[in-house]
């Protein structure tokens, strides 16, 4: 048996090998959840424009969406492919990895920018992820005429069917995925509080109710955080962002996850205190909140009132402390009690007298 291999057969085999290598490379690229760095560093938008001009495309508007994606891909965005576990098609997501993109127009347009919030903690994280050099960084304490917040860490709980017992005396409302149901639940919750009966509202951290609505005075006398609101760590989008932060800013994954979780914790806990005359309990129902690496990332005004003796409580101990504190808050509180402390008098506005308030500011290098 003889086999004759011609040059034509050799060329065809070589072409098949090249085609196979190209297909394998394409498969590897599609399997990679993040767009390769080499593509991100190329002038993708300009090359796309050059291609449309070279091909003499009559209507370039057909490629407008592709052009916008190309621009975003060079500005700290990543293309992420999330394969589906069922018969549903895979999800293609263009996600922003660089948070500084959103604030950059503000920084470029204005000479002086002041960023202020009650939950900017820890301060040193924000210049990194927003990519700016702060002229002054300061953490301000709260000038309160009375201890109107009482943070407690309940580290030892029990399974005594608390919900069943609670429903015997209080109405329970739950935030759901349905916006209409949540709106009705919120309305009825307010009605129950206004009537004097009181109620409990269960909401999800990072949601609209827990971070976007004010519960002033009797609408939010106690906020309980059940667990630490960590983001879903198996998300491909999150993993891509963690990799970006590690490579660009040397931010460790655990540091960012804890920072993000405690930032949302502070947002939720802040619902209990919405003004100088307001007061509220803040219950951290997870023993991990007693650790310094968690407590240290809370805002300074929360840390000042979170005593070491209140960081490892049982439910019974927390109840006793809460009763004692609520009795104190029930005492008469007038405007005269606030003058000179949480309210400035005309004499205190004198420039000479204002110097003593400089001690309130803690500068951070």
From TrEMBL:
Keyword annotations from UniProtKB, A to Z: 4Fe-4S, ATP-binding, DNA damage, DNA repair, DNA-binding, Helicase, Hydrolase, Iron, Iron-sulfur, Isomerase, Metal-binding, Nucleotide-binding, Nucleus
Pfam families named among the record's database cross-references: Helicase_C_2
Residues of the ATP-dependent helicase C-terminal domain: 152-291
Residue ranges, compositional bias (Basic and acidic residues): 8-27
Cellular component, GO, one term: nucleus
Reactions this protein catalyses: ATP + H2O = ADP + phosphate + H(+)
Cofactor: [4Fe-4S] cluster
Cellular localisation: Nucleus
EC class (word): isomerase
PANTHER family: DNA REPAIR DEAD HELICASE RAD3/XP-D SUBFAMILY MEMBER (PTHR11472), GENERAL TRANSCRIPTION AND DNA REPAIR FACTOR IIH HELICASE SUBUNIT XPD (PTHR11472:SF1)
Name of this chain's protein: General transcription and DNA repair factor IIH helicase subunit XPD
